[in-house]
Design a protein that fits this description.
The protein is mainly beta. 0% of the residues lie in helices and 50% in strands. The protein is built from no helices and 9 strands. It has strands spanning 13-18, 21-30, 40-52, 55-61, 79-83, 86-90, 93-94, 99-100, 104-106. The strands form 3 sheets. It has a 4-stranded antiparallel β-sheet, with no helix packed on it. A 3-stranded antiparallel β-sheet has the order 5-6-9, with no helix packed on it. Strand 1 and strand 2 (21-30) form a beta hairpin. The radius of gyration is 14 Å and the shape is globular.
């Protein structure tokens, strides 16, 4: 069955889409002992958190970045910003590899 919400995680990136919706990217799940980031599993999924009729609703989004060839590397602590015609993500960190990222993606 499809997941109804993202797994528990830390250091996700998010930005407001409008006054009732947030876009959430990535973050890391804990998967074992934390040893300088090696126990963290970074993600690259995209979710929308909406507030509707007094309820919080999660929706998994399938965006162009889902394409294996162009998808952003899983990461934590990226910057996510809404521009007039796009959502842009840049930077972040991949805990298991310790890679500090400087790439930019449109989501």
């Amino acid at each position: 069955p499809a997941k109804r919400s993202p797994t528990p995680r830390a250091s996700s990136s998010m930005c407001a889409i409008d006054d009732r919706k947030l876009l959430v990217f990535g973050g890391a799940e804990v998967c074992g002992a934390y040893e300088h980031g090696s126990g963290l599993l970074p993600r690259n999924d995209v979710w929308c958190l909406s507030y509707r009729d007094g309820r919080v609703v999660w929706t998994r989004l399938h965006v162009p970045s889902d394409d294996v060839d162009t998808a952003p590397m899983p990461r934590v602590a990226a910057v996510l910003e809404r521009l007039p015609h796009a959502i842009v993500m840049t930077g972040g960190w991949n805990p298991p590899t310790r890679a500090i990222l400087s790439d930019t993606h449109h989501l």
